[in-house]
Amino acid sequence: MMKHFFSFFFLFLTLISFGQNDGQNTYTLVIHGGAGSIMRARLTEERQQAYTQELKHALDAGTQILARGGSALDAVVAAVKVMEDSPLFNAGKGAVFTAEGRNELDASIMDGKTGKAGAVAGLRTVRNPIEAARRVMDSTKHVMLAGQGAEEFARSQHLEIVDPSYFYTDESWQEYLKVKENNEKDGRKGTVGAVALDKNGNLAAATSTGGMVFKRYGRVGDSPVIGAGTYANNQSCAVSCTGHGEFFIRNAVAYDLAARMSYLGESLEKAADYIINDKLKKQGAMGGLIAVDKDGNVAMPFNSPGMFRGVAKEGKPFQVLMFRE
Ligand code: ASP
Predict the structure, then answer these.
(1) How far apart are CA 2 and CA 19, in angstroms?
(2) Could you count the other beta carbons within 10 Å of the beta carbon of residue 208?
(3) Do 257 and 289 contact (CB within 8 A), yes or no?
C-alpha cells in the first residue's frame, strides 16, 4: 500500500515538472535595435562591444520584471526605455533628423491579453515616447495621438519633457548633413523594439523610433501604426518590426504574421520568414522583425545585412546578435 502511494506521488511530481517545462510558466523576451546596413567591416570592435553592452542592458531591464512574475507589458516598456535612452539607437536620444533638421519620434505598444493598444507620432520633447504610448493605451479611449496633441497629453501625464536639443547626437547630425549634401536618397534607418511572453502566458509588443533620416515634416512610419510595426495577440504572437516603414504599412506586416498563424495555421518561423525574405524582399523592401509566440518560440528574420537583436529565456544566458551569424 505504502509502495503504491510513493509510486503515485513520484508520478505526480514528474507530471508537475513536465507541466512547467512545456512553455507555460517560463518567460521569453526578444529585443531589436534596428535593421539596416550593419556590416561587420563597418562596425569597429569597440562599437560592437558598445552595442552588445546596451542590448544586454535592455534584456536585463526586461527580464528583471519577467523573472519576478511581472507582466510582458511592463517588460517591453522597460527594455525599450533602455534603448531610447541610449545614443546608439535611432529612438529617443540618438534619433535621426528630419529634412528640417528636427527630431520627430514615434512609438506604439500593444497588449496581447486585452487587445488594447496605444501610439504616439511626431513627438519632439518627450524623453521616452514609449511611456507616452503606454499612457495613451492606459489612460485614454483612443489608440493614437499625434503632434501637438500628443505633446500636451504627455505633459498632462507628467512624463519627462526635455529640450529638443536633448535628442541631438553628433553621429545623427553628421548623417543628416551627409544625406543633405550628397542628396542621398536613403540614409540610416533603425528602430528599437521588444516583444515578450510572461509567466502568465501573456504577450506584449512595443516599438519606438526616430523614423527615417531626412524624412518629410509630419511623415509617420510603420512603428506607431498598430498592425504594421507592432502587434500582439495572446492567441498567436507578439511582433515588432524595423525597416522601410512605407512598405511595412502597405503590407500590414505585424498583423499579417499573426493572421498567417491564425488563419493558415503556419508556424511563427515559417510565417515570419515568408513575409520578410519572400514577400517584402520581392518588393525591394528592406527590414526585419522580432516575434515570440504563445509557446515561447522566437523568430528574428531580416533581409538587410544585419539587425541588432537579443533573446532572453528563463534559465539561459542572454543571446546578442548583429550580423548573419
Ligand atoms: N521603420 C522605421 C520607419 O520607417 C525605420 C526603421 O525601422 O528603420 O520609421
Answers:
(1) 26
(2) 36
(3) yes
> What distance in Å separates the CA atoms of residue 294 and residue 268, rounded to the nearest whole number?
10
Q: Does domain 25-321 have CATH number 2.70.70.10?
A: no
Query: Which residue out of 189, 249, 303 has the highest number of ligand 1 atoms within 8 Å of its CB and is therefore the one to mutate?
Result: 189
- Catalytic residue status for 44: no
**Beta strand 237-243 with 287-293: parallel, antiparallel or unpaired?**
antiparallel
* Ranges of each domain in the chain: 25-321
Please state whether the predicted TM-score (pTM) of the whole model is above 0.85.
yes
Kindly report, residue by residue over 123-167, the tens digit of the pLDDT.
999 999 999 999 999 999 999 999 999 999 999 999 999 999 999
CA of 90 to the centre of ligand 1 (A): 9
Return the best residue to mutate from 244, 248, 280 for the ligand 1 pocket (most ligand atoms within 8 A of CB). Answer: 244
Residues touching ligand 1 (Cβ under 6 Å) are 34, 189-191, 209, 211-212, 221-223, 242-243, 245
Catalytic residue among 28, 63, 98, 191: 191
Using the mean position of ligand 1's atoms as its centre, give its distance from the Cα of residue 91 in Å.
Answer: 10
Q: What whole-number distance in Å separates Cα of residue 140 and Cα of residue 283?
A: 37
Surface-to-core class of residue 315, CB atoms within 10 Å of its CB (0-12 exposed, 13-18 middle, 19+ buried) = exposed
Closest residue by Cα to atom 9, ligand 1, is 211
263-278: per-residue pLDDT in tens? Answer: 999 999 999 999 999 9
